[in-house]
Structure formats: structure tokens, C-alpha cells
Amino acid sequence: MNLEQALERVRTGPQGPEVAAFFDFDGTIVHGFSGVHFFRDRVLAGKVSASELAATMINGIRGTETEEDFERFVAIAFKAWRGHTEDELYEIGRRLFMTTIAGHLYPEAWQLIGAHQNAGHTVVIASSASRYQIQAAGDALGVEHILFTPLEVENGVLTGRVDGKSLWRSGKAEAARNFVETHGIDAEASYTYSNGGEDVEFLAVAGNPTATNPDRTLTRFAIERDWPIMRFRPRGTPGARELVRTAAAYGGMFGSVWTGLGLGLINRSRKTALDSIISIGTEVSLALAGVNVRIVGEANAWAARPAVFIFNHQSQLDPVVLAKVLRQDFTGVTKKEMANDPLFGPLLRFVGATFVDRTNTERAVAALGPVVDTLREGTSIVIAPEGTRSLTPAIGRFKKGAFHIAMQAGVPIVPVVIRNAGEILWKHSTLLRSGTVDVAVLEPIDVSGWSRENFGEHIAEVEDLYRRTLSSWPTD
Fold it and tell me: Residue limits of the Phospholipid/glycerol acyltransferase domain (predicted)?
């Protein structure tokens, strides 16, 4: 079963909160084992003794073939957390999610979770990890219900002991069955997703089990029981190939800048230079990086110009993707820090970008004044209304600036929805992966009828348009 078939199954199946979707965490929602990042964080901070490190590694090498093995392993692993407060561990979890774990989130898992949420289903993350390792991801994904291995806490401080049974193998299955009973869930109509052979009993809790990125054991069980198998694109760690592609992409981009400037000088035209930089630079850099851009609704990019083009922002790759889509006669609005960027600062200044001080509202408003004139003179503007790059593909709250500018200039808003750019170049990554970025250019939105009274409602409608587009991708 591929992802689109899985999404269609959710869209066309039973709707409502009595249907649950249970997701395993490590290997299903995120690539790899999130516990490694927690343990590494403590090692680097000098908070794990040599004996704790040795004991944990030995038990890891022994493997976890039985539930007794696993209970012994977690008893040693969580013992190292003794003396920490819950607040400390939640903070570590939030920091590690922002800096590392969010970069291992499977985009396909995010889409699946979103589809279940749009269907009104009760979404649950079930994991043998502690809540401190999962909560930040649950918050980012909008998942309220989390089943986890409980740890003993006294007066807000961890004792280092597990408080009950770990949620591994039968423990996870039992926790899922209890959730079904206590929340009035229709088990036969519900869904389970996991990657490990130890989760066969957990997957069987619901009527729609899916072996997701299954290991050998689960693959064998899934084939025997005729369960659908779904595999996500391996995330992996960027290596030499990605390093070479990234260097080539940057080299191609800046080589194209000099080519464009040369053409501009020959033709004595700044516009020629700009158009050449954009058209040549984006094509060359994307090709060298092994990145394909697949566009739906491309005609909408030309239906109404000048316009304010808005886009959802998760990756530094987004401006390059937008340049390929829009091609000419546009400039951008970006944070003031980019003006001093040694690589992109000079290029952004040359193309006439507006730099905004996001820490000072008055200065930001003043900086946007000339942008209205730019639009009236025939040049389109590109703005990310979220204001900053997001950690996940989820749509954040839109700020009002882009919409104010469109109303003042008397031009339409054109939504550009980008999917998968964060998978190719994540927020905290510097290396490009190869792959395909999907772009949907939606129909221009006339803002001439908007007023101060209904301004917020209209912006909320545009936000929702992005969410609906990401959950149900359009076709030409």
C-alpha cells in the first residue's frame, strides 16, 4: 500500500472520534530511535557515569528478545534520570525536538496523522519511551493522547524507577486495549501503525493494522496475516553524496549570479541581470542538487501580476523553489538578519529585497511602506506570512503584514503551497538531499472586499486553505 492509498482509505472510511488511530513513535513517526538523542545529551553534559554508560551499552548489545530483557534494559536506562525534575526533562525533550528529532520526522507520517485528524479521529501515540521523549512531538503534531512507559515521580523529581509495566510488546497492546475501552472507541473501525515485530499484538488491537516501515519479523507476520505494508522514504544521515550535491548547488547558484551580472552589463539592463540570475541560477542549482520541482496550477502564477505571493515556510530551499515557479518580475521580504548573510545578503540586496526588523513593530511597518510602491510599479512581492521557518510541515499562524500590503496596493494574494521542501533541506540542516518538491499555486484571492471588521476571519480562511491543500493535494 502506498501513501496515497493509505490517505484515501482514511478519507473514505468511517469518520468521527469513536474511530482511533494508534501510532507507534520510533521508526513509525520518526526515523530511528529518539532515546539515543536523550542519552547522548546526558553523556555530552557529563551527567552519565562510566558504569551507567557501560551497563546501558551492554544491555543494548544483548538485545531485547523477551519482555524480561526489555524491562531490565529500561530499568538501567531510566535509573540514569534519577534526581531530575519533570520540568527539566520536558525542557530537554523540547530542546532535542527542536534541534534534532523534528528533522527525523517522516513527512508521510505527518500527512497520515493529519488525515486522521481531518476525519475527526482520535489520534494516539503509543510508545515504550517516556512521556518526556514524546510530548514535544505530540504538541507539534497536535496529538493530545499519548501512551507511554510511566516513571516514578516523588514531589516532581524522578526516582529512577519505572512505575508499573513498560509499554513494550504486551504492555503496549494492553495500554491500547484499555484506551479503546475507556474512550468508547470502535476497535474494528480503528487503525494501528507500527514498524516492529514486537508490536504484532499491538497492531492486532484495531481492525485496520498497517505494518509501517516493518522490520523482518513484522514483514513476515504482515504477509502471513495479509496486513497492508507501507514504507516511507528512508531518512538516513546526510553523507558524502549530499555534501557534494550541496557544494555543487551553491557553486551553480553563485556562478549563475556572475553570468547574470555579465549579461546585465552587456545589455545595460538591471532587469536582464535579475531575470538571468533567477532563471539560470535556480535551474542550475536545483539540477546539481538532484531536486525536482513538480508544479500544480502553474497558470495561477501568471494569472494576476503584480501580486503578493505568500508561501508556507519550512526550508531554506523555499526561495529557490519559488524562483523556479515565478521566474521573473518579483522580489521578496525577509528578516533583517539576512542582509548580513555572507552568501545570500549581497544577492538579496541586489534583487531589491526588503529587510524587516521583526523585533521592532514600528520599524517593520515603516520598512513595508515602500513595498506597496514596488507593487504599484509592477513588481510582485513574495512573503512568508508565518514569519519564520517551521519545524514541521504544520501550518503556523499567519501574520497580517502580507495581507495589509495587498489591500493597500490593490493587488491580489496568490497562495503558493510547498510540500516536502523540509524533507530535502530541514530547518537546522545545511546539506541538501535529492528528491521532489511539490508546489501548488492556488487561484488568486481578491482582497478588495476585505475590511477591518472581517480581516482576521479572512486570514484564518487562507490558513485553513493551506491545511486543506496539504491534506488533500490538488491535481491539474
Answer: 307-421
**Lowest mean per-residue pLDDT among 103-112, 232-241, 258-267, 428-437:** 258-267
Which residues lie across from 85 on neighbouring strands?
Answer: 157
Q: Which domain holds residue 207?
A: 3-230
Q: Which residue has the cell 545529551?
A: 41
125: β partners: 23, 146
Give per-residue pLDDT as tens, 408-435.
999 999 999 999 888 888 767 777 778 8
Long-range Cβ pairs for the range 373-376 (8 Å, 24+) = 374/331, 375/306, 375/308, 375/405, 375/406, 375/409, 375/411, 376/306, 376/409, 376/410
277 is a domain residue: no
Strand, coil or helix: 31: coil
445 within 8 A of 415, measured Cβ to Cβ:
yes
pTM of the model: 0.77
Which three three-digit cell numbers place residue 348? 538579496
Q: How many CB atoms are closer than 10 A to CB 347?
A: 17
**E strand or H helix that includes residue 241:** helix 240-267
What is the identity of the amino acid at 429?
A: S
- Is 262 a residue whose pLDDT tops 60? no
Q: Is residue 262 part of a domain?
A: no
Q: Where are the alpha helices (DSSP H) in 49-190?
A: 50-62, 67-79, 86-99, 107-118, 131-141, 170-182
